[in-house]
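Re-run requested by the PI after the first attempt was lost when the workstation crashed. Everything re-entered from the original request form. Ligand of interest: 6-chloro-9H-purine.
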Amino acid sequence: PRLLQFIRALPKAELHLHIEGTLEPELMFELARRNGIELPYPTVEALRAAYRFDDLQSFLDLYYAGAGVLIQEADFYDMTMAYLRRAQRDGIVHAEIMFDPQTHTARGVPMETVFAGIGRALRDARDTLGVSGYLLLSFLRHLPEADAFSTLEQALPLRDRYQDIWMGIGLDSAEKGNPPEKFARVFARCRELGFRLVAHAGEEGPAAYVRDALDILRVERIDHGVRSEEDPDLMRRLAQEKVPLTVCPLSNLRLCVFPSLEDHNLARMLRQGLMVTVNSDDPAYFGGYLADNYLACAESLGLDEAELATLAGNSIRASFLPPEQKAQWL
Ligand code: ES4
Ligand code: ZN
């Protein structure tokens, strides 16, 4: 497949990836056995067969249950290292990885364990694979803002130890009914602390959530943002201000945000001059890693090689890498 080779050869950054969403069924079963946990599916095949989703919530239910096999530092390390090896194969030179500490601390897993496992994998990958990585700590928006504040408080003592990788803060989970303003105070605090800020918006929620993520949370990038198209004024602003959108085509397809990939608005937004990037979101659940997402879009939306190169370049430009490291890949 010539086009797949072309895509893999483009230096790319992955900017929208949930590390818990990279846990493949095979590794999930291995970790379950290692930790003496019984999974509600008899086999890898039966588990994979359950990956048919109607919407975001039906996915999140399985995703949080799957994360329950992550107990020890080595579990977080193995999951992260498996993703980074896979990322290298796809030509990813830099990954900005979200994680959901609340999913783990709520089960009694210490914050230190989560940071230590993911952090050690990021450092090993930098040294042995030549893939750089940053961490974005994401708050779960279905929980109260007070829980986000206490999560931040638990993580801050680790900031010095992970200064080279913990760059920012994100906001994920169930969007509808959990608007950006619910997290205005904790995001203001994170901004004072010097973190880079991102938030999911306009995936299932309305265009107004994209605007409010920019104006109230003051995020630098929007995760998804595909429903921005419903508001022409917002679209003009996104183009004007070059706000990066981290779009996840195969995720949108699997979660029924679009009925088919041919109906996806990625190419339309790109051709309108928006700062669009392609990402994999939760690749173990959505049937494709980063190069698969690029390839599926090329085939379904008729993206040519120049457009694929623009998308790859956008991913580097929209990353939180320092300018001199971006220049190395542009
Ligand atoms: C997510 Cl696709 C998506 N949307 C919102 N929150 C998430 N967490 C993991 N994947
Ligand atoms: Zn996401």
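Saved to the shared folder this time. Residues 2-319 form a domain with the TIM Barrel fold (CATH 3.20.20.140).
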